[in-house]
Amino acid sequence: MKPRFIHSYSDDVVTFDFDKNDILSLISGKPSAYAVLKGGDNYPEIEGVVAFYQGFNEVIVAVEVKNLPDTQGQCAVNKYAIHIHNGGSCRDNSDIPFESAGGHYNPNDCRHPAHAGDLPTLISNNGNAFMAFLTNRFNVKDIIGKTVIIHKNFDDMMTDPDGNSGERIACGVIVK
Question: Is the separation of the CB atoms in 154 and 80 below 8 Å?
Fold first, then answer.
């Protein structure tokens, strides 16, 4: 099956054919919702945006983050878990950063990593990260008022409920 926005392709030539319903055309407009990410007390320099674009049966998610706490060296991992959480606030209620963000968004009561709020791993380069992906696990209208959390560690994609992803280092509330 060829991607729906590629008109034709061979080994050395790709021809694109876009219309208003294509993915790249969709993300050139205003997002359906977004979250402005800010680092917590231990990581105040982190900033970023997560944009959500509602398609016909899927959502395109675009993430851009700056000033992540990367480790240095040729073998540095620099991968971070990113999830949609149930809570509607990024407040700290105790010693746990962003505790009011609650647990993972999981309306179908699935085991991890099949929660609707489980997103792909964010990979950082020199503290900066960008990713975009397509999902059918939720519609934008269902996540308005929820939160996006970045964790200090990557998601192991096995451990319930959060993939052993560690401390919450940044948070943003999803708004229209």
Answer: yes
In CATH, the architecture of 31-175 is Sandwich (2.60)
Rounded distance between C-alpha atoms, residue 155 and residue 88, angstroms: 22
Write down the mean pLDDT value for the chain: 85
- Please give the order of strands across the beta sheet that includes 147-151: 82-85, 147-151, 168-175, 33-39, 47-54, 59-66, 129-135
Give pLDDT, residue 6: 43
CB of 86 closer than 8 Å to CB of 146: yes
Whether the CB-CB separation of 91 and 80 falls below 8 Å is answered with: no
Residues of the chain with CATH 2.60.40.200: 31-175
Burial label, 127 (beta-carbon count in 10 A; 0-12, 13-18, 19+): middle
The string of pLDDT tens digits covering residues 119-171 is 999 999 999 999 999 999 999 999 999 999 999 988 878 777 777 788 999 99
- pLDDT score, position 4: 45
What confidence tens digit (pLDDT) does each residue in 132-145 have?
999 999 999 999 99
Alpha-carbon distance 105 to 58, whole Å?
17
Q: What are phi and psi of 143, to 5 degrees?
A: -110, 0
User: What CA–CA distances, in Å, run from 64 to 24, 132, 142?
Assistant: 17, 9, 22
Q: pTM of the predicted model, to two decimals?
A: 0.85
